[in-house]
Amino acid sequence: MSTGAAPTGHSKRRARTRAALLAAARQLLAEGRETASIEEITKRAGVGFGSFFNHFPGGKDELFTEAVLDVLDAYSAWVTSLTEPLPDPAEVFALSFRITGRLGAAQPDLFAPVLARGSEILLVDRGLRQAALADLRAGVDSGRFIALDPEVHLLAVGGVLLGLMRAAVVTPGLTTSAIDAVSAGVLRMLGVSAQEAQEICARPLPGSPGVAQWFAAVAVP
């Protein structure tokens, strides 16, 4: 017999309102409009102005920060589901990097909220940072990566990834071969040989159904 209470109509409405506000924030961040007023945010979200502070008492800064973290949490969970079957930490890291580059090139607006935060996003202890540190630690512990503090590795490869995502925004049509070349370069930074790095980054990627599922998970309502 279940002891959990079923969601009430009120709790469902609250959840929908919060989701709508986060979706509106993601849209505005993608447009570079973090200065939008609360009135504009609630209008775009299709919710009442008075409901805003019920969900985000810290104001717009709290909303926009949560919108960025919301994207990263969803993305991190999706990538982890794709890499879990892989036993090699080098392949796990390369797969995450290559897919991120491809998604950034295909839909740059999707990661615009992340780019709006710049390198500070690498220091937020949540979602993608935690997953990346776990992957890097596994690589160091197994001897696949150079024996450095995973935090040091994260700052190095995270900077490259942010640069790649920025390139996807300002250089439409970034090719998959260019993305894979950067990914192989990152593996070499981590200590994988040039030949093996190229071989790993030439392996087939998971098919499009997984990508479609993740787009659906973060789609704006």
TrEMBL record:
SUPFAM superfamilies the UniProt entry points to: Homeodomain-like
A Pfam family matched in the record: TetR_N
Keywords: DNA-binding, Transcription, Transcription regulation
InterPro entries, per the entry: Homeodomain-like_sf (IPR009057), HTH-type_TetR-like_transc_reg (IPR050109), HTH_TetR (IPR001647), TetR_C_40 (IPR049513)
Keyword Transmembrane listed: no
Domain HTH tetR-type residues, every copy: 15-74
Range of residues in the leader sequence: none
Top-level lineage group: Bacteria
Binding region for DNA: 37-56
Key word Transcription regulation present: yes
Name listed for the protein in its UniProt record: TetR/AcrR family transcriptional regulator
